[in-house]
Amino acid sequence: MTNDRGHAKLERLTFFSDAVFAIAMTLLVIEVRLPELHAVTESSLAQALANLLPNYIGFIISFLVIGRFWTGHHRLMAMIDAADPALVRANLLLLMAIAFMPFPTAVLSDYSLMRVAIGFYTAYLLLVGLANVRVITVAMRHLSKGDPDVAEDARQLRRSMWSPLVIAATGFVAGMVSPVAGLVAMVVVTPFVLLVLTRLGHRSGVSGEGSEA
Q1: pTM of the predicted structure, to 2 decimals
Q2: For residues 48 and 37, is the Cβ–Cβ distance under 8 A?
Q3: In this structure, is the dihedral angle defined by the CA atoms of residues 100, 128, 60 and 106, taken in order, positive or negative?
Q4: For residues 163 and 126, is the Cβ–Cβ distance under 8 A?
Q5: pLDDT of 74-90, one tens digit each?
Q6: What does the alpha-carbon distance between residue 208 and residue 144 come to, in Å, rounded to a whole number?
Q7: Which among 90, 111, 135, 195 is least surrounded, fewest beta carbons within 10 Å?
Q8: Where does the chain have alpha helices with state H?
């Protein structure tokens, strides 16, 4: 009975979290506003759509950021078999941070060529990354036992949970030099960091198999 109650709590936590992630990702598109034109012509519409480039970039970056957090959260919830009050509290803090993401995105979209905007966005991304680290750390206490696949997934997730912090820190430093450099850093560094973590995971897996042999 206790296990059933713990599983039910975990399911409710997962469903609620998925809903918050989905709503936050959907709200990002609000910042891609329809252009207001006084004299509608082909050229004026094309120019207005081109002027929305910072909004497109802000949407793409934040959508991928939240999507990355959701992917990790989804994997994490599949690894554990119970949810205690500490995990619920840590998860609520993460969801609060995720739900607020459309606001830093709006700042980034409207003032993308200002250092303050880049600094605000990347600093907030650091806070979200720290909240995510806290959730993973607490949830690891409830890993499903006796499944080698779960243990390997947990090792990979422990490594990848630091990637948002690396990306945000890189974007912050680059953004203080140049706002454009900050945007480029967040777009370019993201796949690079993920590639490095993936390779480290493969090497760790190979070395682990070798030691077992």
Answers
A1: 0.81
A2: yes
A3: positive
A4: no
A5: 989 988 888 888 999 99
A6: 20
A7: 195
A8: 2-27, 42-51, 53-79, 85-99, 102-110, 115-139, 148-160, 163-177, 179-212
